[in-house]
Amino acid sequence: MRQLILILAGIALLAGCASAPRMAPGLRDRDALISSAALFDPTRFAGDWHVVASGQPGCKGVQSWRWDGSGSFDVRGAECAGATGPLDAKVVLTGPGGRMSAREAFGGEPIYVMWVDQDYRIAALGTPSGQWGMILSRQTPARPDLLKAAREVLDFNGYDLRKISP
Questions:
Q1: How far apart are CA 166 and CA 153, in angstroms?
Q2: pTM
Q3: What pLDDT does residue 83 have?
Q4: Least buried of 37, 65, 91, 112, by fewest C-beta within 10 Å?
Q5: What CATH number did the domain enclosing 74 receive?
């Protein structure tokens, strides 16, 4: 009996050493550092944005970001984080540099505005986990030079640009 217990304990020990199944890869290398826009201004970010590139195939449309003046946005429009249906969420500013969160939108994950150009014409958003990422532009089509810069920011933050499409 003691020998059987030792054998079973050995099997359990070996099973514990097995690697966990790998989850499907996201849009970014999770080991890469990620940044957010240090000089983010929520009042300048407020308004309508066109989704011009996303990690969610076929996602397009407009997102309306309405700043309430006291720490949060009401966001409506195209949902490009994998959920079905239109986006209708409260997005709360949680830290400096365009760091936000929404409980029931954007996959419930932290939202980082990684970059926005100085005139707030284009922005790159995503999550530290890499489950979603997108480029928003005030105009459509986006200016090619600004779109290129936003893609470079996503690349710098570990995103696989082959997975971010118009």
A1: 16
A2: 0.82
A3: 65
A4: 65
A5: 2.40.128.20
